Fold this protein.
Amino acid sequence: MNKEQIVKELNFKAIRSSGAGGQHVNKVSSKIELTFDLEHSEALTDEEKMLLKTKLSSKLTTENVLILTVEETRSQHKNKELAIKKFISLIETNLKKPKKRTPTKPSKAVIKKRLETKEKTSVKKALRKKPKLE
């Protein structure tokens, strides 16, 4: 994964931010909408694209375009930087392959202890019962 090449493939669009802010919010487009076309990206390999398609399936559109919006600050430039950071961290975390789990067996001492406690509780519960009068 080449970060510089991926950043070049990003498309940005400035939109008017929602919420409170008075007259300023009605005039200035500070919200940033970042779009990334996963299907036509040249910075990612086919294997990476397939992995991202499966992991980011809920965030992708039907044309496999990832859309991120950032409106945290009043500055358009800061929002753009935040969007890039958010996008790169999202890609990096979803490209990591999880460690393969090595199956282990419980030790003999643990098995013995578990069976002993089971026996003790069963005896304790048996003593709670009313005796049979025959």
